[in-house]
Specification:
The protein contains nine helices and 17 strands. The protein is an alpha+beta fold. It has three domains: 218 residues, FAD/NAD(P)-binding domain; 58 residues, no CATH class; 76 residues, D-Amino Acid Oxidase, Chain A, domain 2. Strands 1, 2, 8, 9, 10, 11, 16 and 17 form an eight-stranded mixed beta sheet that branches. α1 runs parallel beside α5, α1 crosses α8 and α2 packs across α8. The structure holds flavin-adenine dinucleotide. Flavin-adenine dinucleotide (FAD) binds next to α1, β12 and β15.
Length: 381
């Protein structure tokens, strides 16, 4: 049966939009089916780091994938701007993970050593920085800061503008974006291809990509796939605008291109993103003002919480179904960081019909080998 669509992407968040944009750029006829623009998405709640340091502790291929994502970001941002005229303000000055006492410094040193012990990617460049050196880069740090780790691959971006650019780009490529199309069921067809059932009717496509965030867990079994999720919640605080003083992103602090300071982001086992908890914000704000005392003088203008898309071990899942070839699943935390890889690399693999050996370690089959695997806290950094 000839299909109208080459690929149906389920989920119009950052993952679905990045993959769909990459596929449409390669000339594929793409339809994106999403629950609806009013739905709360991780893609609108994130901290907007393009962050590499510490990613992949315990899973070296993820460390490589993250470094490559950082290397691909300039070209990705350029392609988005060229197509849509939107500057997503990607910057890669390198980033610091700040330590406020000797215990934190020793723990961070162990993380850095661990990354090299497991075989860090070429040109990894992660290193510890003394307070003295830190003062040259961040002259306004507070007296409690004792040192930091530094990675030259870390950066940040305006992630909401990136999200918008991807959707504008999709439209410009002629992709068919359908909000209010919650997919209830997917049927692999005997002769190949898939029928996706929504309340608005059925949609047919030769391939299907599940990029529905935490919703992948429910959809994956429809096409013989598996996506075990363990979402967590994160809170973020935003201050009023202030003169530029923070020229490097930190793991939990960054100054946006608009001048506000974002303070992030908690990790809680609560799945209600309809509220923010003051005791959690207090801990975050306290740490931020100890890092930069000038923050004491700023008003908070916004705060929110969001639910992270998180696999059970914290590492990405990319897989193709063995029983229904042409059905793929993609889910991960760090969808901002990895957007470049999803758009420029993963999309090409999906177009070509196979994920290839390089992505084999990301198969969800790893959970069958170690069913008890639980969240790796560094993976969620
Ligand atoms: C507090 C916080 C801080 C973060 N900080 C960072 C950071 O600094 N750097 C970074 O790289 N990442 C960060 N992230 C993670 C990043 O935001 C996510 O990895 C990314 O947004 C995930 O995108 P997604 O498209 O998979 O999920 P979502 O944005 O949740 O989108 C999933 C979409 O699928 C749709 N959907 C679900 N089920 C169905 C269905 N059955 N049919 C149709 N559509 C469906 C939903 O409506 C939704 O639109 C952060 C996340 C949070 C919450």
């Amino acid at each position: 049966m000839a299909q109208v669509h080459d690929v149906a992407v389920v989920g119009g968040g950052l993952l679905g939009a990045s993959i769909a944009w990459g596929l449409a750029r390669l000339g594929q006829k793409v339809v994106v089916l999403d629950e609806g623009d009013a739905v709360r998405r991780a893609s609108r709640a994130n901290f907007a780091l393009v962050w590499v340091q510490g990613k992949g502790a315990g899973m070296p291929p993820y460390a490589n994938w993250s470094v490559e994502a950082s290397r691909q970001w300039p070209g990705f941002a350029e392609a988005l701007e060229e197509q849509t005229g939107l500057d997503v303000h990607y910057q890669r000055p390198g980033g610091f993970h700040i330590c406020l006492n000797e215990d934190e410094l020793a723990a961070r040193q162990r993380v850095v050593e661990g990354m090299y012990a497991q075989g860090a990617p070429e040109g990894y460049g992660l290193e510890m920085t003394s307070r003295e050196d830190l003062e040259k880069a961040l002259p306004e740090i507070g007296p409690e800061v004792v040192g930091a780790s530094y990675s030259p691959h870390d950066g940040h971006v305006n992630s909401l503008r990136t999200f918008r650019a991807l959707h504008e780009g999709l439209r410009a490529f002629g992709a068919d974006y359908r909000p209010d199309h919650m997919v209830d069921a997917i049927e692999p067809q005997p002769g190949g291809g898939f029928v996706l059932h929504t309340e608005q009717g059925r949609v047919e496509a030769a391939k299907v990509v599940l990029a529905a965030g935490n919703g992948n867990e429910r959809l994956a079994p429809h096409v013989g796939l598996f996506a075990p999720m363990m979402p967590t919640r994160g809170q973020i605080i935003v201050t009023e605008r202030v003169r530029p003083f923070l020229h490097y992103p930190l793991g939990t602090l960054r100054q946006t291109d608009e001048g506000t300071v974002m303070i992030g982001d908690s990790k809680e086992d609560v799945l209600d993103d309809g509220e923010t908890r003051v005791p959690v914000s207090t801990v975050m704000a306290d740490r931020a003002r100890r890092t930069f005392p000038l923050l004491n003088r700023l008003n908070v203008v916004r705060t929110w919480s969001g639910i992270r898309v998180m696999t059970r071990d914290g590492f990405p899942v990319y897989d193709q179904s063995a029983s229904a070839p042409g059905a793929f699943v993609a889910c991960c935390h760090s969808g901002v960081t990895l957007a470049s890889m999803h758009a420029l690399d993963l999309a090409r693999r999906i177009r070509d019909g196979g994920l290839g050996g390089a992505l084999a370690p990301f198969s969800a089959r790893r959970f069958a080998d170690a069913p008890e695997t639980l969240l790796n806290s560094d993976a969620a950094a």
